[in-house]
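One-letter codes give the sequence; the fold follows as tokens. Both lines appear below.
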Amino acid sequence: MFVLGIDPGLTRCGYGLVARQGQRLRAVTAGVVATDAGDPLPERLARLQGELRALVAELEPAVVAVERVFFQVNARTAMSVGQASGLALAAAAAAGCQVVQYTANEVKQAVTGYGAAPKEQVQRMVAAQLGLAERPRPADAADALALAVCHHAMAPLRARLAAAGEGPGR
């Protein structure tokens, strides 16, 4: 199963594709879609939308896992992350992918076993679980890989809950 993690952001939107091969997870690709902060907002959103659509079409993931903005101190940051998140959700849904969302704490819990783990610990665990020689970089791509790893860990539970009629949104 191919899972594309997306760490939404308007300036830097991280992505990471993780495949399961038997019991092993493998990073297929990771990177960042960047927009210039000096460009007008509509142009930045259009560029990000086009890049996300192209990415989903090229990588053909079964599932797209997007970070859910749970809490944000800075309202301006929350707005731009929300806009980028909406574009990611729409691109995945339009391509017919299953779409899931996880908060940062849910990702940390699934990847490290501790919901308040620091970013460096999450990156080390992602590297270990994917068999990478070093922590993935940049941080946005590492966070996207963590989202994909989280979904691989949570998918069996989500499937059991859905089968029992107790899935998310019920």
The chain has a mean pLDDT of 93. The chain has one domain: 2-163. Residues 2-163 form a domain with the Nucleotidyltransferase; domain 5 fold (CATH 3.30.420.10). The chain has five helices and five strands.
